[in-house]
Amino acid sequence: MSIQEGLNMDPRIPLYYQLMQFFRQQIEGGQYQAGDAFPSENELCERFSVSRPTVRQAINELVREGLLHRIKGKGTFVSAPKIEQDFIQKLMSFTEEMRQKGLKDSTRVLNLKVASASKAVAAHLSLGMDESVFCLERLRFINGEPIVVVTTYLPQKNCPALDKHDLTNKSLYETLEKHYGIKVCRARRILEVEAANEEDAGLLGVEEGEPIQLSKTVAWNQFDKPIEFSIARYRGDRSQFTIELRR
């Protein structure tokens, strides 16, 4: 099948773009379901009579958009629809938000220890250098799929026995309010994009170097005191964030 026969598009448009649009139509039209293996580069080159760089560029664009994803050693697969994250507009815990959406969340606590606050952490939490903080690292899942790795810092003086609580099955915010009288009342978040390092790639099930969405949060309590600084690293292929603007 030639590219003209297969796509019937204006030949002045770059071939990779024509392919990308054709693949997108197939995916969005239901010819492929989430989790389906996508044809290999060799198959697509032969089918459309185009070069491997052309096919690879088309696929790379769809991977960046999140319609496709790669699994090392296995190939390219059709992605499930991205999970809408509303935390830019609403202040709620991850657990609360996912349950409101009818999704099943779960948590694996990777580490919970007391450490001395670094210069950056101390600045975010208005602490003195080397004051003690809890460092909580968690891997959060939605419907059994790893979605985000979160590292959270909290002043130890505010929640001295936090390490005695079950944070695998209980919300951190609920635990802070119930046991320490701490209500999270406002937060500031900064979003960035970076490449997944080896550790994050392994935890999130993506390839090293793939884009991940980085969120840095500082939260304040009912007395307008900073009580949490966290860094969350979301899978770029499974998450999207909504920001509503009004004038």
UniProtKB/TrEMBL annotation:
User: One MF term from GO for this chain?
Assistant: DNA-binding transcription factor activity
Segments spanning the bilayer are: none
Q: Which CDD domains match?
A: WHTH_GntR
* Family matches, as Pfam families: GntR, UTRA
Q: Does the keyword Secreted apply?
A: no
Q: Which domain of life is it from?
A: Bacteria
Under SUPFAM superfamilies, the record lists: Chorismate lyase-like, Winged helix' DNA-binding domain
Q: Which UniProt keywords apply?
A: DNA-binding, Transcription, Transcription regulation
Q: Which residue stretches, if any, does this entry annotate as coiled coil? A: none
Where in the numbering of this chain does the HTH gntR-type domain appear? 13-81
- What name does this protein carry? Transcriptional regulator
User: Could you tell me which species this protein originates from?
Assistant: Desulfocucumis palustris
